[in-house]
Amino acid sequence: MKYIKHIMPLLFLLLTTSSCRKFIEVEPPIDKLSAEVVFTDVETATSAVTGIYTNMLVTLPVISSGGVTVYTGLTSDELYSSNTTSTTLAEFASNAISPGNSVLKNDFWQKGFNLIYHANACTEGLENNTYLPVQVRDQLLGEVYLCRAFIYYYFVNLFGDVPLLLKTDYQENQKAARTATTTVYGQIITDLKNAQALLGTSYPTNERVRPNKWAATALLAKVYLILGQWTLAEQESSSIINSGDYSLEPDPNNVFLATSNEAIWQIMPTRGYNTTEGLTFIPANWSSGPPNFPLTDYLISSFETDDLRKSSWVSSKTVQGQTYYYPHKYKIGAYGQPVTEYYMVFRLAEQYLIRSESLTWQQKIDKAKNDLDIIRKRAGLPDTPASTTEELLAAMAHERRIELFAEWGNRWIDLKRTKKSADVLSPIKAGWQPTDTLFPIPLEEIQRNPSLAQNPGY
User: pTM score > 0.70 for this model?
Assistant: First the structure.
């Protein structure tokens, strides 16, 4: 049972956290489950994989549940912290992140590699598996490939070169050097293409909380956009748009609901609250202070007059005569409320924006304008007046900034990929330097593994 031997360290964590009744539940007590049966049984194999999603959505903002949104919101021009005493937050806001920063180490690096380890363990249990029905095995393996690609997508955008770990051999992993970003992207693409081939267009549950083929396609379109492979980005985004499986929610207030027909992949809450971002951004009823992470004036002033996204996705709180605006895409921030919002990972509107930009670079101006205007129409805005490539790219940057604000670090990544970071951030960030576009490798990881080299500037 070569492909099962490394699963035991993972078993307790995955199976004890897979409590959601919408997923397969495991009846036998943990101490009666052996490594040999995890991937020989449909229920336990499914629980091992779906446990990854439960571990992704946790209370604190980490790489898989709000951390990318919050901390790149601080390092870009979207958010600021109302906590003036936190050195950790101040480092992100000033783009002077210390390699010893605890959030960097715990919530990004270690949490991310934890999830990658889980995915690798499941991969080893599923590849070449002859015990499970082929349809079940393929679905689970496709999900795991997507999860691994998803974390690596954020790793390369936050840290640049990172160790590319595809096995659970801890002795090899603990001494692994950083892998070139181009190679990591190559693996991401391979994983996503494998996921596309294994996953069907239907969802394995009644809701969109376990990925299908279009979820893998959505991430692949994002990857091709970053790499400037316009034809491929257009192709992938078009396949989702033309599938007929999704439609834009007419009311922006409904976009982030569990029932949103715009959702391509969501993570379902299982811990007594709706979303981590709701918990993080919405001020508690008992609090007399400002929101934790208000929106900057730079962002607020960028909304056009009558933009429904401002009235629907931004809320405010006035404290001692000062008004603070905060993200309100998710409307529920308290514990113990009925679960009506799922954590949105991929949605249709972004695919329209990806296709529009890809079409613009290919000089397909009329088609690009049409996609852009579809998004603007939902926001209650007139068609874009942009008519040239240069004007459309500027309009596109604006539309992405507004449509995707405070959502999975899109603003931070967009500034980097379009090489606008210095132009936008250096005037508003004291001490800005070009190397700030990458986070440092955590100091503790470098001390533990001499094969790791630090990013320039740290």
Answer: yes
